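Protein modeling request. Please complete all fields; requests missing the sequence field cannot be processed.
Requester role: graduate student
Desired output: 3D structure, token encoding
Chains: 1
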Amino acid sequence: MSTQEYLEKFRAQELVVFEGKGWLVTVRTKQITFGSMVILPSRAIPTFADVTASEAVELVEIFARLEKVSATLGAEKVNVIAAMMKDPFVHFHFIPRYSQPKSAFGRDWVDEDWPRAATLRDVETPPEALGSIRDLIRKSLPSE
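Delivered output (144 residues):
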């Protein structure tokens, strides 16, 4: 899968939260929990062995920023999943975790897997909710 193909699949242009030098973060189109995101490389990276040292350092910094964002959203924990099965390239699903339902944008978001590891599944999420979540996360991002 080319870089352009996966950026289109994850609707990166529409749902981008922020873009770094080697990675970009988007709202996950299928919100497993409120504020679920995907961390995508800016270039095609087929395996972890292909991640450069500078990309690895930036990735850890991104994880730290997103943990802070998740805490401001009310998440108690986060799960970071690198399944790489359906989409066979390096990328991460960043899933905020909540022990109680989270009310936002006119609905209750329930973490169905709490306290077990999050399950990647298809969750219908209205486009207007995705845009609202994107905007909220952008506002919640700590400066670098």
